[in-house]
Amino acid sequence: MLTRTVPSQPIGRFAPSPTGELHLGSFTTALASFCHIKSLGGKWLLRIEDTDIERCDRQFTDQILLDLDTLGLHWDGDVIYQSERIDIYNDYLSSALSSLTYGCQCSRKDLAEYWAQEEQRQADGNGSNKALNKKRYPRCCIAAALDRQKHKLRIQLPNYQIGFRDGIQGLQWANPQQTLGDMVVRRQDGMINYILAASLDDGLQKVTHIMRGLDILPMTTAQISIMEAARLPGIDQWYHLPLICHDDGQKLSKQNLAQPINTCNPSALIASALQLLQQPTVDTDTPENMLRQAIAQWDNTPLQGKQQLSSVNA
Ligand code: GLU
Hints:
There is one protein chain. The chain has 9 helices and 12 strands. By secondary structure, it is α/β, with parallel strands linked by helices. The protein has a domain at 8-82 and 242-256 and 266-314: 3-Layer(aba) Sandwich (Rossmann fold), CATH 3.40.50. It has a 3-stranded parallel β-sheet with strand order 1-2-3. Strands 4-5-8 form a 3-stranded antiparallel β-sheet. Helix 7 (220-229) links the parallel strand 9 and strand 10.
């Protein structure tokens, strides 16, 4: 991995997928990453993760940009759209990442059948009696040298423990091969998957601090290994924020139809998100002035070790 020789300005980012409007959970992530990086004197970039053309919608992108602006979350530099960067991801797949990637023709159904057969072999006493790890792709296609353009591509992830210090969740260790298996990085239809696009862009945008939701923590060791394989500068500091949950413990997400944020009263929204993030209160004012105060007071400590934050009204 390349190491930085001169201390650089901290760079953070918010990277929403426009598959819906911002909800309290994604807005809280945006707010936290903004206040945190600004409290370090850094830049806050905005990247729209819209490679999934079936699920992403330009209308959602426009609404996200409008909402962030209304809420005083002004990004630095130009917005990056991953849908316009497909050639860059493909270039990496055919250069730095080519020896680690391979074509795969296994469908979900094929894999389900494979695991069912393995289970049967074990039951018959013909297999090893180690617990089956169905998350791990059994690499059926690795030696087949399938046409890379006609099949989905998987990336070989390392089979050893990778550790990183998370500024909120503490020290983390995981073996990406055991926990994730060889992940699909490009679908058969050419669509680039999140893990590849995000890993490459974080490196190419020289992001130093990543603050994002805890739901993405399981993919972090894959991201670390992809960035390293692509010979891109690594991330200096990781922070995985507790998830915002309804008071019944259910995570707020687009999948369970979290309500879009209502920006009619931006100051009230900022105040309640800061409260949710357990930050000191700020005076009610314009969004920009409230954020200035929130940045000056920003403190990760109350979030440390927490996996979820409950929002009664979410
Ligand atoms: N695009 C992802 C999402 O909206 C965020 C990914 C990230 O921050 O790395 O959930």
